[in-house]
Design brief:
- The chain is 39% helix and 17% strand.
- Strand 11 and strand 12 form a beta hairpin.
- By secondary structure, the protein is an alpha/beta fold.
- Strands 3-4-2-1-5-7-8-6 form an eight-stranded mixed β-sheet, with helices on both faces.
- It has two domains: 271 residues, Carbamate kinase, CATH 3.40.1160; 94 residues, Archaeosine Trna-guanine Transglycosylase, Chain: A, domain 4 (Roll).
- Helix 8 runs parallel beside helix 10.
Length: 383
């Protein structure tokens, strides 16, 4: 079975690769030219095979710390981290440019915050379209969190989580997290020589979460714990994730050849589309729409969109593009979706046939209140 699962990722076309601070900086805090060049060579090899590559790279804060002479300590306050990131991000991109350009590969810097991926629908779509356009130009986007402006409320927090969200954002075929370990072990291999590498994980159990331990190095923001959290996200949306060593050349090629490298987190067979994951779990709910029994049945059992004729009443304050709860007459939530209409207009068209929208509102952009593509079922009672 494991060979079959490995073989499936050989055909991955759109790949997100995340590299941690330890891989490109070591313990010194300074960017390591040899390590970065080796990484770029591996990425270019995938690019030359015709694959689309997105790199999520840590290292900006660590590079800034090194340039500012703040070692061996790590900035503790957000302003200190933002200052280090502002200095280090330019250094990081300059190094990548040095190694990518001679290979004939264009790179692009993309800085994101939580608002861009999860909270704000318009920014989500803008980020998605930008990344897809860059891939269309055969450029390699290099993504990092926009640490210079992010505060706690809009921070993703670590680049493992960021990489998982980016993989969802672009509907990636594979996410590879490169670290200083060969994969996920039964225990910390640095402390326990008897620790065993687990080749494949099909379900993240409480034992696996506990075994992930804590954070990484003094200059990093992640560790195995954040990688397991990233795997939980990608497994839900059907994207395979591999944790493998970034300390050796050729790891990426070995993974894409289906070789038993690292730990493969096998996604659920019943794939939930990335956009629907965002609708269901990542975005704030702004309002509530009550639907009649016919509409509830159509949503749950027939895969239909929500039409205004099925809406009984609406509550909350929301506009077009906001996420709303869809509940039955008893108040049980059955779905969430992106509304095509603001609440004031929905109040006018509820209970009416879609053909009447033009007459009521003076315009008719959508037949549906929520289109099926922008709707996800959250009730477990549908057939």
């Amino acid at each position: 079975m494991s060979g079959y699962e490995r073989a499936r990722i050989k055909s991955a076309r759109r790949i997100v690769v995340k590299v941690g601070t330890k891989i490109i900086c070591g313990s010194s805090g300074h960017l390591d030219p040899q390590r970065m060049e080796r990484l770029v060579q591996d990425l270019v090899s995938l690019w030359e095979e015709g694959r689309e590559v997105i790199l999520v790279s840590s290292g900006s804060i660590a590079a800034g710390v090194g340039r500012l002479g703040l070692l061996p300590s790590k900035p503790r306050t957000i302003p200190e981290k933002q200052a280090a990131a502002a200095v280090g991000q330019g250094i990081l991109m300059q190094h990548y440019e040095t190694y990518f350009i001679p290979q004939g590969v264009i790179i692009a810097q993309v800085l994101l915050t939580r608002d861009d991926i999860i909270t704000n629908r318009e920014r989500y779509l803008n980020a998605r379209h930008t990344l897809q356009s860059l891939l269309g130009f055969r450029a390699v986007p290099i993504v990092n969190e926009n640490d210079t402006v992010a505060v706690d409320e809009i921070r993703v927090g670590d680049n493992d989580t960021l990489a998982a969200l980016v993989a969802c954002l672009v509907d990636a075929d594979l996410l590879i997290l490169l670290t200083d370990l060969d994969g996920y072990y039964t225990d910390d291999p640095h402390k326990n020589m008897a620790a065993e590498l687990i080749p494949e994980i099909y379900k993240i159990t409480p034992e696996i979460e506990v075994g992930a331990g804590g954070r990484g190095s003094a200059l990093a923001t992640g560790g195995m714990e954040t990688k397991i959290m990233a795997a939980k996200t990608t497994m839900q949306v059907g994207i395979p994730l591999v944790i493998a060593s970034g300390m050796r050349k050729g790891t990426l090629q070995a993974v894409l050849k289906g070789e038993p490298v690292g730990t493969l987190f096998v996604p659920q067979e019943d794939r939930m589309q990335a956009r629907k994951l965002w609708i269901a779990f990542g975005s704030p709910v702004q309002g509530k729409v009550f639907v009649d029994d016919g509409a509830a049945t159509a949503l749950l059992n027939k895969g239909k969109s929500l039409l205004p004729s099925g809406v009984v009443r609406a509550e909350g304050i929301f506009t077009a593009g906001n996420v709303i709860e869809i509940v039955d007459l008893s108040g049980r939530e059955i779905a969430r979706g992106i509304s095509n209409y603001p609440i004031d207009e929905l109040q006018l068209i509820k209970g009416h046939n879609s053909r009447e929208i033009q007459k009521i509102l003076g315009y008719h952009d959508y037949d549906e209140v929520v289109h099926r593509d922008n709707l996800t079922i959250v009730s477990n009672e549908h057939k």
